């Protein structure tokens, strides 16, 4: 059975809620899931899983979106870990009233690319909290991710 680690940063609970929804969707696809807060996780924890998932909000007190403070060490630590042979995806919440929207998702995507991990499904950004459409989107991404992993296991 494939396994996934979802690591998230959440200030208002929106990204945590999305992590739980995505995790449940993956479980329903037959993937074993562990969910952890980013501040209590090390990047090397990803080595024990087939799929590496980061969920992060974007902090935006100014005009430029930034990584959350609790995610910065994890982000920097990613440069020192080889995740070749692993799959990854990223999701995150933002507030579209800011000109730089959900940039933490983009930042983590760039960092994952440097680790050697392969993108399983495209990154996913949503505004504020996950509502019905976002839940459906997360479930659809879980199905696609499961198909990608199962196809790899068959080859």
Automatic annotation (TrEMBL):
<comment type="similarity">
    <text>Belongs to the flavodoxin family.</text>
</comment>
<keyword id="KW-0249">Electron transport</keyword>
<protein>
    <submittedName>
        <fullName>Flavodoxin</fullName>
    </submittedName>
</protein>
<feature type="domain" description="Flavodoxin-like">
    <location>
        <begin position="4"/>
        <end position="146"/>
    </location>
</feature>
<dbReference type="InterPro" id="IPR029039">
    <property type="entry name" value="Flavoprotein-like_sf"/>
</dbReference>
<keyword id="KW-0285">Flavoprotein</keyword>
<comment type="function">
    <text>Low-potential electron donor to a number of redox enzymes.</text>
</comment>
<dbReference type="InterPro" id="IPR008254">
    <property type="entry name" value="Flavodoxin/NO_synth"/>
</dbReference>
<dbReference type="Pfam" id="PF00258">
    <property type="entry name" value="Flavodoxin_1"/>
</dbReference>
<keyword id="KW-0813">Transport</keyword>
<keyword id="KW-0288">FMN</keyword>
<dbReference type="InterPro" id="IPR050619">
    <property type="entry name" value="Flavodoxin"/>
</dbReference>
């Amino acid at each position: 059975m494939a396994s996934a680690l979802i690591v998230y940063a959440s200030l208002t609970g929106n990204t945590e809620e999305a992590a739980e929804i995505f995790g449940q969707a993956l479980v329903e696809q037959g993937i074993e899931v562990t969910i952890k807060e980013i501040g209590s996780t090390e990047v090397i924890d990803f080595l024990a899983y087939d799929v590496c998932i980061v969920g992060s909000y974007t902090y935006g007190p100014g005009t430029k979106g930034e990584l959350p403070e609790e995610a910065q060490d994890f982000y920097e630590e990613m440069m020192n870990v080889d995740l070749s042979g692993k799959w990854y995806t990223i999701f995150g919440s933002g507030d579209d009233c800011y000109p730089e929207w959900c940039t933490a998702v983009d930042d983590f995507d760039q960092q994952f690319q440097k680790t050697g991990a392969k993108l399983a499904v495209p990154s996913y950004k949503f505004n504020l909290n996950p509502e019905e459409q976002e839940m459906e989107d997360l479930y659809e991404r879980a199905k696609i991710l499961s198909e990608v992993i199962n196809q790899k296991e068959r080859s």
